Structure prediction request, 473 residues.
Amino acid sequence: MMSMSGNDQEVVAGFLRGEAGAVGTVDGWISRAAWPYQRRLANRWDDVLQEVRLEVTRLLGQGKFRGESSLRTYLWRVVSHTCLDQLRSQRKWQWDDLDELEKGEGAGLPRITPSGHEDKDLLMRVLERVSQDCREMWRMIVAGLSYQEMSRKLGVAEGTLRVRVLRCREKASALREELLAHRPGNRPANGRNIAVKNSPNRSGKAKTDDL
Amino acid sequence: MTCEQATELLPWLLNGTLAPAERDEVRRHLESCTRCREALAETRQAWTLFSQHLPADALVALAWGETPAGVDPELARQHLASCPECAAELELARTSRRLENEDNVAVFPGTRRREVSEKGYRGWRAAAMAASLVGLIASGGWFNSAQDARAPRINSRNIDLSAQLERGGEEDVKVVPADSDVSLLLYPAGEPSAPTYELEIVDAGDQVIWETPGLLFDAESNGFYLNLRAGFLSRGSYQIRIYGLEGGRRAGKPEVFDLRVE
Prediction:
């Protein structure tokens, strides 16, 4: 592990002490690194910058910067990561009212909230194996198109569209089960299927700690 | 409502586009049908699956030219080829990285900020990327008269000019030194849609002191490049105005940037 350069050490220490020079240096890097994201986050830009500053302060305060790159490069990556998280949080959907509907149902399926690399990798593999048509239809749904709009766009009758979407969902579910069953560690030596435990639900926020 | 009908409508219940009467009917059915509530949970699983994107740390790694951890590189490549959101986000991260390496480029906000819809961003991005390639090629030459060596230059990114920029000033007013070369990246508030642009620099008396056609929007950097040579502008207040050109004529209102030279 490389040790921090003397100058970087001074900047980190000065920043954490609140010294004007160091704070100005770091803030300048933050503003510059975050600039390309400004257009897409314009409606809450001040909040985004504040979020970035908090994340930088947290990471530096916890000693997460270990000198593997320059401080400047490290912070540049943290800023990009945090801004990307902010972009994605704008697209998150909330279904509090549907949570209520599902609550009383003990037979409900465990929710997939992937955050570990392994879970993400599995879902990405499922996604890439699903047909292009399926991906396209579901992307339209996630983008907020009604079935009437989709029917017009795709030139397909509404009833046919709804059935196709349902079949896509079923195929994707089957693919996921198939890939899960074939994952290393999921099959015993005698080849019999066993019940697969789902990963515990974790926060969906990507972590900057490992940058 | 039958189970079959309710199950088919679940994706649009999730994205909130069912008509109120349809939505209420589906909800009433769900309240009393265990099997369809299971189908709702499965539909939410499918939603999670189909809204998968490359992790943010993978995009950052790719922007810095590294192999992303935890994601198969070929899978990442395939996903980027088919996911406009991830491709656009990777471009943003790459632009940020370029600013780390190019100290002589100043970033400069526009005077008006307008939210760009996701749909609109995807729509012009593809066209802008193609146009930016032309801009990069064209930027190898100079668009201004060779008679005035101090005249500004446009479209050139990689100019080896010393930049001593001053911070501060009023919001949206960029302060630059009179005695140093400086590069400005002018970031428009509106959506760039014209094939080319015309730039003029206007003094405090509204006199045009310099103008040039042939300005190109750089899609990689999301802005317009302007290089000011030391001594070209004397101390004072100026405006930089950028007009879209269509059919050789100015179209629409200009993007306006306030500049102070000190």
Q: What stands out?
A: Chain A is about 60% helix and 0% strand. Chain A touches chain B through 77 residues (CB under 8 Å). Residues 158-181 of chain A form the longest helix (24 residues). Chain A has a mean pLDDT of 78.
